[in-house]
Design a protein that fits this description.
This protein is an all-alpha fold. The chain has 3 domains: 2-84; 95-192; 199-277 and 300-326, no CATH class. It contains 10 helices and 2 strands. It has a two-stranded antiparallel sheet with strand order 1-2. Strand 1 (65-68) and strand 2 form a beta hairpin. It is elongated, with a radius of gyration of 36 Å.
Length: 326
């Protein structure tokens, strides 16, 4: 009996040797093993699912229990179904997350490209983005294709996409097509109008410099140099001039940065010194002692500022440049 029992057990083990592979896979499965699947090619999901389902089909033909002398052999497959469900959840999550990230990124740049003709600063920003994304088009294409392939695996291996999942996939594909088209449009716009763009940029730089010098002249002449003038009123007016000076200086910095972006070189802004209130008392949050040449600190308790309107001719309208000169 002992020999018969041993032989029966050996024969059973030979016939079901493949179960050892299933057992090793199931025992080795864990959240860490699932995490390893994140970012893997979509074909890897399909291969795992196909293998799991093939094992499950074979296990259905195995008796749930085989009894020999003093032995019990039990095999069943609920764990395989659980692993398949985890792979499905991961694939759905990855497809959704990657779609949202791509749509957000592409829509932001697409909005910028569509406003390329609004002003000279936007032209420079578009030029910078074109340089950045022209070297990344291959990578972006791969990211879009990855999401589409992952959705195909979900359709073929798990279930049809839900309506919201279909809508998200279509939104991504439409966004990608619009991005590719608008990138070419923005590139053509800047290339064909390059001379007009550079002329407009130079005019804007000169205009900003003139505005700075005009503000400086306004702050250092007239009643601001009259000792008999009202010191408090003069200080408040100087604060308004200072705000305008700082805004114009910031715009000049942006124009210089735009020039560097478009040409690769930049001319120093040659900024004039900011107007400084002299001989004013330490009021309205001013930290400078009487007679000092330090700038007043804006925002102190009780401070009042006058906001000067932007100089005439500085409001941007949509550019209608002619074609590039030859």
């Amino acid at each position: 009996l002992r020999q018969w029992d041993t032989g029966d057990t050996r024969e059973l083990c030979r016939e079901h040797a493949w179960v050892a592979e299933v057992h090793a896979f199931v025992q080795g499965w864990s959240p860490a093993a699932l995490e390893v699947m994140r970012g893997q090619p979509p074909s890897s999901y399909a291969e795992h699912v196909a293998q799991l389902r093939a094992w499950a089909r074979r296990l259905q033909d195995v008796p749930p229990a085989v009894v020999t002398r003093n032995r019990l052999f039990l095999v069943d497959s609920p764990l395989l179904a659980c692993i398949t469900a985890e792979l499905q959840a991961l694939a759905l999550h990855e497809a959704s997350l990657r779609s949202k990230v791509l749509i957000t990124e592409l829509s932001t740049v697409l909005k910028l490209y569509r406003s390329v003709g609004s002003d000279i600063l936007t032209v420079a920003k578009c030029s910078h983005k074109l340089q950045q994304y022209q070297g990344q088009m291959g990578e972006l294409q791969e990211r879009v294709e990855y999401v589409r392939s992952l959705n195909d695996v979900i359709r073929h291996c798990f279930r049809p996409l839900a309506p919201d999942e279909e809508s998200q996939e279509n939104a991504l594909l439409d966004m990608w097509e619009a991005f590719v088209f608008q990138q070419q449009e923005a590139s053509d716009f800047i290339t064909l109008r390059r001379l007009s763009i550079m002329d407009e940029l130079e005019e804007s730089l000169q205009r900003a410099r003139r505005e700075l010098h005009d503000l400086l002249a306004a702050a250092t002449t007239g009643r601001f140099r009259d000792p008999a003038s009202n010191a408090r009123a003069a200080e408040q007016d100087l604060r308004g001039l200072l705000l305008c000076f700082q805004a114009t200086a910031a715009r000049l910095d942006e124009l210089c940065h735009s020039q560097k972006t478009l040409t690769g070189t930049a001319v120093p802004p040659r900024r004039a010194r900011a107007p400084q209130p002299c001989g004013t008392r330490q009021t309205l949050g001013c930290a400078s002692p009487p007679g000092s040449r330090g700038l007043p600190r804006h925002g102190g308790q009780g401070s009042q500022t006058s906001v000067c309107p932007p100089p005439q001719g500085t409001a941007w309208t949509r550019l209608s440049w002619p074609r590039a000169r030859t």
